[in-house]
Specification:
eight-stranded parallel β-barrel, 8 strands, alpha/beta, globular, TIM Barrel
Length: 226
Amino acid sequence: MIRVKICGITNEEDINICTSAGVDALGFVVEYPIPVPWNLEKKTARRLMESVPPFVSKVAVLGDDPDEVLSIADFLDPNVIQLHGEETLNSTEKLIFKLKSRGIKVIKALRFSVETGKLRGDILDPLAICKRLADAGIDAVVLDSVTGSKPAGTGSTFDWKVARRIRDDVSIPVILAGGLNAGNVSQAVSDVRPYGVDVISGVENPVGKKDPARVHAFLMAVRCAA
């Protein structure tokens, strides 16, 4: 079964839309260091997370500053932290240890440039990164697209052949993101066979508001593909 995470939750109505459609996880972008349409203050994020029903994972999407990540993690107590910034590999390894000691699972986003196709970060070999992250105890990696102006929610895909090579060669769960929508997620699942898929802008209309029809169509496409 392919798991589905819908990210960029900003209100209770969208929580209800997504959970009624049968999602496995909801993502809340919290105190992100770069302005994005889905950014929440941590008090708002905690209030929203408290309304998420049981058996749906609450994922806090954070970035960059390790001390801030730990502080927000302690405040929110989510099921999962998704590191989605410019964290170095060394910093990520240390955060994995500290977060997992708090009983919080950790996933790390590996972001591929839409313009160049290259991996963003201090090490350019995704397989080498995944090996070190696996040794550090990471729970999963998210393969996402990034542009010069958008750290996520780009609406653009990257090379799924690269994603499939990573999926085939690493021992940790691989979650596919980046430009997914109801029209292409079936092909993405077929090509990559990921552990899960992650969507944000592909189920919105307008930006920042989940569209019930698009959410249900996305879930249906994933289920049919799986």
